[in-house]
Amino acid sequence: MAHINLEKLELTGRAFQCLSEAACPGGKLQYGDLVKPMCSRGRTGVLCAACTSEYYATKGECKKCTEVSQEDKLHLWGIATAVAASGLGLAGIAWLSRGAATEYWQQADLTWHVLKELSARQAVVLLQVAQLYGVLAALAPDPSTGQGASRESFWERTYVDALQLNLAQALQDAFRLQCLWHGEKVRLVFALASPMVPLVLLLTCGLLEIIKPAMGTGATFKILTFFFIGGARESAALLRCQLVDKGGATLGNFAFLQKLPFLPCSESEGVAKWVYTVGYCTGAVYVTLIPAALLFLYARQHTLLKHGKTISAQTKRAKSSWITELRSVKASEEPMQVNDEHLLAAAVAHMVVTFQGKVRLQLQDGKAEMQSSEREGRAPAELTVSSFLEGGDEVEEMLRSRAIMEMLVERCEMEKASETSLLSGAKEVFFKYAFCRFVWMEMAQKLLAVGLVTVIGTDDGLHLSLACVLGMAATIAMVQPYIQPQMNELHIFSLLCLAAAALGFAGAADPKAHWLWLSRVSVLLPFLLAAAQVLRPDSCEALAVRLFQESRRAQKGAAGGAGGGAGGQDRPLHLSAAGALLWWPVEIPGAPRTKRQLKMTKQPMKT
Q1: How many other C-beta atoms can be found within 10 angstroms of the C-beta atom of residue 175?
Q2: Which segments cross the bilayer (predicted)?
């Protein structure tokens, strides 16, 4: 196939520039160069873009199968040293501030559960930031595709690409399969396999769902989290053509696929037919089928939780206590039957927003009565920008209390639907959002990824990429979809950093400027913000979830006659003889600079 292309190029009587100076030392391919190839050793094909059978293709270069690159070793050691230095630096900062940190954790009664939950969600965001950073890196000059020259080399490209978690490419590179078999065929097989591997894993999850309901759905979302961006990128890259030479001259009918240089874009039969079939079919799955499945999930939860939106709560002051009652938002509805779990959700929502210190909660006759022995008022539980700006407005607290109540009621209804395997397996995804209806953000994030991998190779890739990234940042800023305020701000800040990285990559095409430093700094800033958020990992919403879960367990234990309470000896419950009265004292620490967390007292309060 390559020789046919060379003969066609020969007949044009034109000279084309190689994509990189290392590919052909002469700089241009002319008539004689094509008949007697003057490509550098290991190079062949149109514009010397392909590798011979004795060489393997990696990082846009052709390396001899027996060659060991010292440069790769130096880069790898450099990254390892930087990671180790960063770890030691963070450890040193933690050691120097150990007194303040210990005091804070003791005062706040911080549990590892809170920190672990926040850190796990941060890790997912940071991984996706790194993967999108690798997608945007296509804006930087790349000698292998003739995208101009830069004053400094973006040598991290290979390691950034590794974060795409391309299993097929990793297997090929690890075992040097191009050297064991015919290199051209190996590259073809793995180019076809790369976008298909995540889809095969998703198919496996479907079979697992049949065997063990709920487990397959949960595994599906994990696979989408780790492999979706890389799979979509490989699907788009499989169809991307090299249309011009290094000087910008159009190749016309001699354009070839960037991932498969031996295959011309004009070819439509044989191997090319398989390539285009795989590329377009997998692209359709990433662009339409997966977002459509997430849209179905959104519609399913909307139908399930529709009834819960007709319930509201009213809290009013009564002497030294607060009384919470449930009411229906439908004016023509008959007197509603009080749901104890919904009433408990309303009471918990009011407590975490309004009270500090010890609170006495009593459920009786369809009402919830709360008494606080200490001052009222809310202390910041999370480290966010809004925590510095908010002023304790009563209307704001009321709206936040109602939002927390709705969130808790949705969780309650979602857990009742556990017999529905699809929703049961997706509960972890639902519960990371403030409201289950915000699960549409999963679809929006997938569309952002496929949008970036699609537009990044176009002539206006920079502007379209900025529009996608900044549009998503604006959406999250307006909606605030995540249950933890820290996650909202981490997402927004990360997207802004990705926009700055895109500008840095695009500016690196200017050989007289140093723009790559902007991209390198931008990708590190989200990690620094995540480290700062760990200092205050809690929030009123997360506190409400923990308090509600503990209270539900206590309530169920009391209803079952477990006099000592289901919570254990350190969480005593007391019931009246008729079993109609359920109460327990709780403590929410309210000292300045402390987070507000549920703490059951060991001494029962007298009634």
Answers
A1: 10
A2: 76-96, 188-211, 274-299, 434-456, 462-483, 490-509, 515-535
Q: Which of 37, 64, 91 is the last residue of a domain?
A: 64
* Residue located via tokens 């938002």: 329
Residue 457 forms part of a structural domain: no
Packing angle, helices 183-193 and 271-284, rounded to 10: 20
Confidence of residue 2 (pLDDT cuts 50, 70, 90): very low
Q: Which residues share a beta bridge with 93?
A: none
In single-letter form, the type of residue at position 397 comes to: E
d(CA 185, CA 537): 51
Angle, CA of 446, 448 and 451, to the nearest 5°: 110
Report the alpha-carbon distance of residue 568 to residue 585 in Å, rounded.
15
Residue 135 covered by a domain: no
CA 298 to CA 308: how far, in whole Å? 16
**446 lies in a domain?**
no
Ranking 25-34, 412-421, 543-552 by mean pLDDT, the lowest is 25-34
Q: What HEC string does 400-444 produce? A: HHHHHHHHHHHHHHHHHHHHCHHHHHCHHHHCCECCHHHHHHHHH
Q: Kindly report the pTM of this predicted structure.
A: 0.77
Single out the residue in 64, 83, 107 at which a domain terminates: 64
Task: Return the C-alpha torsion angle 21, 23, 27, 31, nearest 10.
Answer: -170
Phi/psi zone of residue 165: left (φ > 0), alpha (ψ -120 to 50 degrees), beta?
left
Quote the DSSP letter at residue 374: S
The per-residue pLDDT of the chain, averaged, comes to 74
User: The domain containing residue 10 runs over which residues?
Assistant: 2-64
Number of domains observed in the structure of the chain: 2
Q: Pick from 599, 543, 528, 588: which is nearest to 89 by CA?
A: 528
| Maximal CA-CA distance, the chain | 103
Would the pLDDT of 320 be above 80? no
Does 454 reside within a domain? no
Q: How far apart are CA 123 and CA 105, in angstroms?
A: 22
**How much is the pLDDT for 268?**
83
Report the half-sphere exposure of 77 (CA within 13 A, side-chain side): 6
Mean pLDDT of 48-68: 76
Look at phi and psi of residue 561 and say left if phi exceeds 0, alpha if psi is from -120 to 50, else beta: left
Mean pLDDT of 71-76: 56
Kindly state the tokens that stand for 298.
């959104």
- Asked if the model's pLDDT at residue 144 lies above 80, the reply is no
Q: Which residue is it, tokens 């509603």?
A: 336
Tens of pLDDT, residue by residue over 510-543, are 666 678 889 999 999 999 999 998 888 878 888 8
Alpha-carbon distances, residue 117 vs 49, 103, 120, 338, 353 (angstroms): 48, 22, 5, 33, 21
Question: For the chain, how many helices (H) and strands (E)?
Answer: 23, 15
